[in-house]
Structure formats: C-alpha cells, structure tokens
Specification:
By secondary structure, this protein is an alpha/beta fold. Helix content is 26%, strand content 24%. It has an 8-stranded mixed beta sheet. A two-stranded antiparallel ribbon has the order 9-10.
C-alpha cells in the first residue's frame, strides 16, 4: 500500500498560508507571505531545515495536490532548471519525474508532465492510490483538499514543521469544523533554530468524548 503524508510549515496559531513567498497565496488579502523563509534566513544558519526537507522528499513517490497548490508548483518546480545546484535542482528533478495527482472541479487539462486529474470522486480516487503498491504520496499546501481527506480518514501521517511565530491571521491547517481525529505522536525533534518538527500517525483506537468517537466520520450537518 501507499501512504498519504501531509507535510506543512505551520505557526503556533495554526497558520499554513503562504510560508514560502510574499506572493505565494494572497487570498483574503494575506500580506504576511514568506514567513517561514524569512525566519529560516535569520535563524537557521546550520541549514537544518533544508536537510530535513531533502531527506523527506527523497522518499516521495507522488504528489497529491489541490488545484491552487498545483498551480504554484507547476509555475516553479515545473519550469525550474533540473541542473540547478543543491536542493532546488534535486527537488525539480524528482517532482518532474514522479506522478502528480490533482483535485480540481474546473480544470480539464494539466500541462506539467506526469500530472493526472483525480476526477469527480476525490475520496474514492485517493483510496485507490492508497491501496496501490508504492511509497509515500506527499501533500503540500492544499488545505481544502486535506480537510476532505481527513473527513474520509485518508491521511496516514502528518509531519508538521512548527515555527515559533504567531501571525494572527491566515488559513489554518485545522480550521473550525475539521474532522474529529485522534493521532499518535511518533517523533518530535527540536532544531537549533527554535523550530520543532512533530510527526503524527493515524491511531488504531478511537477516543470517545460525550458518546462521540473521534474515529467516526463527520456528517455534513456537523461541519
């Protein structure tokens, strides 16, 4: 089986919007884009963050993306020079080679090579991906897609790169109405920069609160 792994740069108040650049995601007039890159430039002199991402992405056998994140990736990794030095070239080569699975209601064609639309029934398509032989299928960004995956219990692991920042605004990874979920912390690592990396995996058991199991699916009326 394959595994769906969500990776995210996230602040202490749960914001995941626009970590990589000022114009990465301007939705709702978000003007704090690039917060993770700015923090790393000032505090990660040892390059621990880059080494961590290089290690994680060396295991990536596919990308699972929402349409907006796909557009961002295709305009960057999809066109950058594969012969560039360091992590940029390494990730560009890998992302071009592996399949990209895209959730979209409106797009009918994808220009980036090895890209595939999931079709109208995204949960069913993702379940088929999980059941097929393979390794880690990586989810970056794609907050709306992650919410859909969580509602159908399709996320196997969350890797959260937690920054000691509070932005006070922006899209959150786990917003109001997110599916009830219970996870197991399998690894926690503090970097010299002050960033903490936490890895959580789906739990076999269920936590019950007020006669409600955290493994029960959430109905639309409860969202």
């Amino acid at each position: 089986m394959s595994r769906i792994v969500v990776q995210a740069f996230i602040t202490l108040d749960g914001v995941v919007q626009g970590p990589g650049g000022s114009d990465e995601d301007r939705d709702d007039d978000f003007d704090l884009g690039g917060w993770s890159m700015g923090y790393d430039e000032q505090n990660d002199s040892a390059g621990e963050g880059g080494a961590l991402i290089a290690d994680w992405e060396s295991r990536t056998e596919g990308l699972l993306l929402g349409r907006k994140t796909y557009d961002i990736f295709s305009r960057s990794w999809g066109v950058w020079d594969e012969n560039a030095e360091g992590l940029e070239g390494e990730l560009t080569r890998r992302y071009n080679r592996i399949p990209k699975y895209v959730a979209s209601r409106n797009v009918t064609e994808l220009s980036w090579k090895n890209s595939h639309l999931l079709g109208p029934d995204v949960p069913a398509a993702v379940q088929r991906l999980r059941e097929a032989p393979g390794g880690e299928i990586r989810v970056w960004g794609s907050s709306e897609l992650i919410r859909t995956l969580a509602e159908h219990d399709l996320v196997d692991e969350y890797r959260l790169i937690v920054y000691p920042l509070i932005l006070g605004k922006g899209k959150k990874l786990f917003p109001e109405g997110f599916a009830l979920t219970t996870l197991t912390l399998v690894e926690s690592r503090a970097l010299e920069s002050g960033v903490v990396v936490n890895t959580y995996r789906r739990s076999d058991g269920a936590l019950t609160v007020n006669d409600r199991s955290f493994s029960d699916p959430v109905s639309p009326s409860e969202q």
